[in-house]
Amino acid sequence: MEFVAISALLVIGGLTYTYVHRKRLYKQIDELEQWKISLMNRPVPEELSKIKSLNMMGETEQLFEKWRNEWDDIVAVQLPNIEEKLFDIEEAVVKYRFMKAKDALQQTEQQLKDIEGSIQRILLELQELVGSEEKNREEIEQLKEKYRQVKKAMLTQRHAFGCTEVALEERLNALQNQFQTFEQLTTEGNYLAAREVVVVIQNELHELNRFIEQIPLLLSDAQIEIPAQLDNIVEGYRELLEKGYVLDHLPVDKEVEEVRGKVSQVVALLEELKVDEAEALLRETQEDVDTLYDLLEKEVYAERFVHDETEKIEQTLYDLEEETKETRDETLFVQQSYHLSQSDLDKYRQIEKQVQQLMKRFMLIQTKMAEERLAYSLIREELEEILAQIATVKEKHAQFREHLYALRKDELAAREKLSEMKKQLSEAIRLVKKSKLPGLPESYMLQVSEARESLTRVSLTLDGKPLNMEAVHQALDEAIVFVQNVYDQTKEMIEQAQLAERVIQYGNRYRRRFQVVKEGLDEAEQLFRRYEYELALQKAIAVVEQVEEGAFERIREWLKENE
């Protein structure tokens, strides 16, 4: 029974697959049939009929025959072949030759794609031909009007074109020939070739319009503006020479001749209607002219600068020289009281040397100016360098004088700090006396002695002649450490003594009840009488905490509240 059931299922499955597959193939056949019909109904004949309104000659006639033959082949040969193939495919499906049918469908689909591509190409080429004729007809009239405007402009502004007139007329005559070529091609039915001529005419008219606008301006610059500027430069150059300017470094005559040569090249390029090249060369030429102007103006401004600044610089140098002399005297005076390092002395000598060098350099410039051996621009550069160096030397000089002042300022600050530390040490001793301690540990007394000695060393160093502030600062730093340690140790020692005394007093309440407390407190008292306050406190805390945990913190809080 199971075998029969499985066989039945397989048969049913096979029949279902065959039915579905055949239905899919029939659907594809129908779609290709519809595609074939749509291709046959494309409006190629209607578009071909539009060409008959054109001149059926030359290129137009050839294209018409070509497209008509292609369409006839599609309609009479290719599409009927497709029809037959579709019948063959349908027959293969009926006979269950599915693979053969599927391959044939793919081939037929590709053939239909190729046919559709051919039809689209024909329609596009048709539109291009018809469109070219329409565009040509519309645009040629506009171009003729523009041509008349260009010709009129050339006639009315003939004087503005100068040496370029002949070349422009040649281009204009050539353009007239292009119009004639267009008419001939159109008459012969060569509309696509005529379209190319239209584009040529458009570009040529655009360029001629640009030439008409640019050439008069370029000729004016090349033949009038720049030559006038060059004449002004030559005249200004000679006037400066007559006034005594040294201009050997400016070969103006040579540069002017080179610029005139470039101007001639510009005119030659314009004669050949190489307008873009001429414009670029003219810009370069104008830059050369501007550079010559700038160089001459630089000399004039430099002369004013030299005239205005020379006396100021001279006075500044003399003032700086006097100030350095005063600093030298002040340095000698300071050396009697203070120790100046070799580095400090070298800094001053360097300043003095630089001032002398600047004086010599300035005097050399004055000599060259008197002998008229230097251009003002070069003198200005020299003077500007001197001004920059003067500013640098002044800054170094001011820093050195500030250093001299700082030595005295440092001494006063050191003496003030010494006084503060003496007061701090005295305050520590006062706190000890006020606390009424039974005695002081030997280590503490040793620290006090070291602090006093460090303060004495600072005093002796401050009284030294010459005063060595580096040594003062070193001694001062050491004294600060010693005194601060004594002060901190004093406060800590007094606090420990007070706490130890209070803890022992608090623990006395347990002395009779607990032998261990009695013995511990006796030991703490012995340590206290030997001035070992820290050990006494530690011992007392340990004993009391054995019988009353947290007692020490309560004692400390009570002391803080009753201070």
From TrEMBL:
Q: Which UniProt keywords apply?
A: Cell cycle, Cell division, Cell membrane, Coiled coil, Membrane, Septation, Transmembrane, Transmembrane helix
Annotated GO biological processes are: division septum assembly; septin ring assembly
Coiled-coil blocks: 98-185, 268-330
Answer whether the UniProt record assigns the keyword Transmembrane to this protein.
Answer: yes
Membrane-related topology note:
Single-pass membrane protein
The answer to keyword Coiled coil applying to this record is yes
Q: Name one GO cellular component term.
A: plasma membrane
Q: Where in the cell is it found?
A: Cell membrane
Q: Name one Pfam family in it.
A: EzrA
Residue ranges, Extracellular compartment?
1-2
| Topological domain spans for side Cytoplasmic | 22-563
Q: What protein family is recorded?
A: Belongs to the EzrA family.
Summarize the protein's role. Answer: Negative regulator of FtsZ ring formation; modulates the frequency and position of FtsZ ring formation. Inhibits FtsZ ring formation at polar sites. Interacts either with FtsZ or with one of its binding partners to promote depolymerization.
Q: Which protein, by its recorded name, is this?
A: Septation ring formation regulator EzrA
* Gene that this polypeptide is encoded by: ezrA
